[in-house]
Amino acid sequence: MTDSKEASEKVVRDFLGSWQGRDLDTICGAFAENAVYHNVPVKPIEGMAGIRGIFKAFLDAFTYAELKIITLAAEPGLVLAERIDYFTMNDGRKIVLPVTGVFVVKNGKITRFSDYFDLADFERQSGLKL
Question: pTM of the predicted model, to two decimals?
């Protein structure tokens, strides 16, 4: 089954929007069990357990997250989303990070999610090491 352009776009928009609700099950629900999450240039995370672990770590570190879409292009099974990610750390520091995400969608689930951003900028703003 090939996902339509509209269905692929909805999966990604719903996933990105779900971060504001901060519910780990909802956020992770967008992914296939064998999905790959890759914060380029760090090592990819393969499988739901690893993805769930990193997303939980993000939620534990931030009191607020908004992944705001600037530009989105979709094809059946493929979505590119240019974003500005806004985070508020537990200590009140604010992070503003330009990001471009590439999403592969199959059967209504994200199977690959690659985020491209300035790693040094994220680590400087957040104090976290990815």
Answer: 0.94
